[in-house]
Amino acid sequence: MSETKGKEIKTGDVFAPRDREMHPKPYFPAYKSSIYRSPKKKLIMIPQSASELSGPVFGHDMFGNLDNDMIHNFARAGKSAIGERIIVHGKVYDELGRGVPKCLIEVWQANAGGRYRHVNEKYIAPLDPDFGGCARMLTDNEGHYQFTTIRPGPYPWPNGPNDWRPAHIHFSLFGHSFAQRLITQMYFEGDPLIPLCPIVKTINDNKAVQRLVSKLDMDSAKPMDSLAYRFDIVLRGANSTLFENRLEGN
Amino acid sequence: MTKKLSKKLIESASQTAGPYVHIGLTPNFTGIRKVYKEDLGKNLKPASGDVITISGFVHDGAGALVRDCLLEFTQADDNGKTRLAKVGSNGFSGFNRVPIDLKKGSYKLETIKPGRVKAPDGSPQAPHITVWIVARGVNIGLHTRIYFDDEMEANKVDPVLDLVPKARRSTLIAKSTGKNKYQLDFRLQGENETVFFDV
């Protein structure tokens, strides 16, 4: 870890360690699936080399026109998905407060009735023939993103005797380094199911939970068309100019 | 250009990818074929290097196969270079996304044998592939690595393996099972639990 030996990559001044107090506990018995899927041994901290500091790069050319439009990207010609039309938008920051440009965001969700389009899905709510449930986009040069969808329904799930998931959209984010990789979920302001949910409760810090709750944003709503929700996301940030330089080189 | 910046914001909390992670990350695999032309992280086309296959299972702490998980792999090219082509281009991106085969319950990664990436001190690490595992019940994605059992000399001096207690190193080392074929299981919990890293 000595700085004098470093030529290609300086050590010690890349990403600060993840603050795991702000993340869910891996083992959380009230969320039954975590019981046997949570490692018991302590994570081993490793120095960040190019293997951790680099990550896949995504270009605009892989996107289709409807990739960020769940209302239409699975719909039959002339049709659209059933449900409350919404715009979800926000900005991806790093921990240093800088926008994260060209960040791949992939989202997925249940339909308006709370039903996923998946072979293992057993819920009685019907599929919507015009709704697939996935979208993707890159953030712009400042880190902003936007997609359109329908508000997903809450749904019951086999965990406790009567557990319901609050309405939520799953978010997968890449950043520019594999060390930043994150999957999380976005909830909706005012949903009374949020504090009851065992998956939400895996996060022990109420402020951290609140940061996952999107806010109704009337200024961005489209009159006579769609409501809007704002959801900002923070990825890890590197605390040296090394990481900034690498970004500029891309 | 060496000013240190301090944290202003707190990283968003992780949440489980849930049982339907494939809808979002590999929709074509799960039968949603109308949205994206192809799933990300497929069809790598390396310019050079030995094409290899790594396969295995993911086990939970009760000994059951984890079938609803998704694995992501990143790696260097055969020269140890990590700045690679864009995903979806014709070049080698070093990124691969692999769902578990729903019938067999196993994963199969087809890629090239990576070269040696430098450690922070400039010394070469042993060839390795970084792995990220998400699934229902996994509350925050799990980072690990795949090393190779036919690279024992390099493994001996690898600075990351050196941080791992000797008795646990085998959980990171894929076994050669034939020409350019390797096998490695991941165990999320219990006996021979895979070594997971805080990166």
Structural summary, described in words:
- The complex is a heterodimer of chains A (250) and B (199).
- By secondary structure, chain A is mainly beta.
- Chain A is 8% helix and 24% strand.
- Chain A starts with 43 loop residues before the first strand and ends with a helix.
- The model of chain A is unreliable at 1-12 and 241-250 (pLDDT under 50).
- Chain B is 5% helix and 26% strand.
- The interface between A and B is large, with 104 and 93 residues.
- Strand 1 (44-45) of chain A pairs parallel with strand 10 (197-198) of chain B.
Order of helices and strands of chain B: HEEEEEEHEEEE
> Kindly state the mean pLDDT of chain A as a whole number?
90
Fraction of residues in helix of chain A: under 10%
Overall shape of chain A: it is globular
The major sheet of chain A is characterized as: 9 strands, mixed
Number of strands of chain B: 10
Major sheet characteristics of chain B: 9 strands, mixed
General shape of chain B: globular
Low-confidence stretches of chain A: 1-12, 241-250
Concise overview:
Chain A is mostly beta strands and 250 residues long.
Which secondary structure elements does this structure contain, and how are they paired or packed?
The complex is a heterodimer of chains A (250) and B (199).
Chain A: E1 44-45, H1 50-53, E2 85-94, E3 104-108, E4 134-138, E5 144-150, E6 155-157, E7 163-165, E8 168-173, E9 182-188, H2 198-201, H3 206-210, E10 213-216, E11 227-230, E12 233-235, H4 241-248
Chain B: H1 21-25, E1 51-59, E2 70-74, E3 95-99, E4 106-112, E5 129-134, E6 142-148, H2 152-156, E7 173-178, E8 181-183, E9 186-187, E10 197-198
Parallel strand pairs in B: 1-8, 1-9, 6-7
Antiparallel strand pairs in B: 1-4, 2-3, 2-5, 5-6, 7-8
Any key phrases for this structure?
heterodimer, A: 250 residues, mainly beta, nine-stranded mixed β-sheet, two-stranded antiparallel ribbon, 4 helices, disordered N terminus, disordered C terminus, B: 199 residues
